[in-house]
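#onboarding

Welcome to the new folks! Below is a worked example of what a typical request in this channel looks like: someone posts a single protein sequence, and someone else replies with the predicted structure as tokens. Don't worry about understanding the tokens yet, we'll cover that in week two.

Example request:
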Amino acid sequence: MSLQIKLTRSLIGSKKNQIATAYSLGLRRTGKVVVQPDNEATRGKIFKISHLVEVSEV
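Example response:
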């Protein structure tokens, strides 16, 4: 199973750890979509920046 993650809000004004989390997922620009494996590490990252992203299962 994989997760499709889209950065829907800008990282401007976010905390440094949230920006680092988005970068670690491969999200650098608003509107960028990445596919990541569905595991505990990815879920934890998504939880940390859940207010900035949209997630759907692929």
